[in-house]
Design brief:
InterPro entries: HPF/YfiA_ribosome-assoc, HPF_long/plastid, RHF-like, RHF/RaiA, Ribosom_S30AE_C, Ribosom_S30AE_C_sf. Associates exclusively with 100S ribosomes, which are dimers of 70S ribosomes. 30% of the residues lie in helices and 38% in strands. α1 (14-31) runs parallel beside α2 (72-89). It has a 5-stranded mixed beta sheet. The protein is globular, with a radius of gyration of 19 Å. The protein is built from 4 helices and 9 strands, in the order βαβββααββαβββ. The chain folds into 2 domains: 2-99, Ribosome hibernation promotion factor-like (Double Stranded RNA Binding Domain); 105-185, Sigma 54 modulation/S30EA ribosomal protein, C-terminal domain (SHC Adaptor Protein). It starts with a strand and ends in a 6-residue tail after the last strand. By secondary structure, it is of the alpha+beta class.
């Protein structure tokens, strides 16, 4: 597994990097087969250290976890525990999908935009109806089954996931509803 360990405006020593590789490697290898790479980012917010970890699996799924603590090692240990708990929870489903799928998840390119928020205090009429684009990025839309999409959304801790349903051309969406259930938007595929 490839590791990318970095700090935002803080130095990360060799001892911490070794600790991250050892602990995260054991946790991921225990529950997921063939992880491809891991990204761990440390930062300091006021008096707390923050750790964000993302692990990409060979099946195309991504697991994410984050934690905060007053010490940098404690922040990573809490983050690693969260990652391990997620992977343990989905171990059977991860392995089942892995055996079913001989090829990695197919990804389609797309553009992702961040739009400027409309200031509620501003009573003036906008000059045009075109939104102001703050940033434009490339993103990938995976081709997944609905079960895999829900699992990916849960592993990422995201409120919504856009995906292409395998065998169909339309874009589907799964999202967490306010009542705690999962919603699925499946557009009609008319030829």
């Amino acid at each position: 597994m490839r590791y990318q360990i970095s700090g935002r405006q803080i130095d990360i020593g060799d001892a911490l990097q070794t600790h991250v590789k050892d602990c995260l490697g054991v946790a991921v290898d225990k529950y997921a087969e063939r992880p491809t790479d891991a990204t761990v980012i440390f930062s300091k917010i006021a008096h707390e250290f923050s750790c964000e970890a993302t692990v990409h699996l060979s099946t195309g799924l991504t697991a994410q976890a984050s934690a905060r603590a007053t010490e940098i090692y404690a922040a990573f240990d809490q983050c690693c525990e969260k990652m391990e708990k997620q992977l343990r929870r989905y171990k059977r489903r991860l392995k089942d999908h892995h055996k079913e799928r001989s090829q990695p998840v197919e990804l389609f390119g797309a553009s992702s935009y961040i739009l400027a928020a409309h200031d509620q205090g501003d009573e003036t009429e906008p000059d045009s109806l075109q939104p102001i684009i703050v940033a434009e990025m490339e993103t990938r839309i995976p081709a997944l089954s609905v079960g895999e999409a829900v699992m990916q959304m849960e592993l990422a801790g995201a409120p919504v996931l856009v995906f292409r349903k395998e065998g169909q051309n339309g874009v589907n969406v799964v999202y967490r509803r306010e009542d705690g259930n999962i919603g699925w938007i499946d557009p009609a595929n008319e030829a």
